[in-house]
Amino acid sequence: MDQLKETRKTKIVHDHEENELGIYCVGTPIFNYTGKLAEGVSVSGPVNRMQKKGLEYLAAIVKKTGEELSARLGSVKR
Fold first, then answer.
1. What is the value of pTM for the model shown?
2. Angstrom distance (rounded) from CA 77 to CA 47
């Protein structure tokens, strides 16, 4: 529940081998014109190439992309 609260606050989710062994994923939601969740966008890669020092940078790019796609769907910035 704590992780879900954090994800709702930051709009970033990290999947550290939770879905598939050896894969790390960073994702963010995309909202439609009504403000409801429509889709999501993420970047995945092998755990050994997804270095901790680069994850914040990657998360920022993913989040910005989600915000831009949400805006194109008519959603206000959340």
1. 0.83
2. 31
Is residue 27 within 8 A of residue 40, CB to CB? The reply is: yes
According to DSSP, residue 54 is labeled H
| CATH architecture, range 2-72 | 2-Layer Sandwich (3.30)
For the chain, 78 residues long, the average pLDDT of each consecutive 10-residue run is 86 90 94 94 91 86 96 84
- For tokens 């993913």, name the residue: 62
Q: Which long-range contacts (CB under 8 A, 24 or more apart) does 10-19 make?
A: 10/63, 11/63, 11/66, 11/78, 12/59, 12/62, 12/63, 13/42, 14/55, 14/59, 15/42, 15/44, 16/47, 17/47
Annotated domain spans of the chain:
2-72
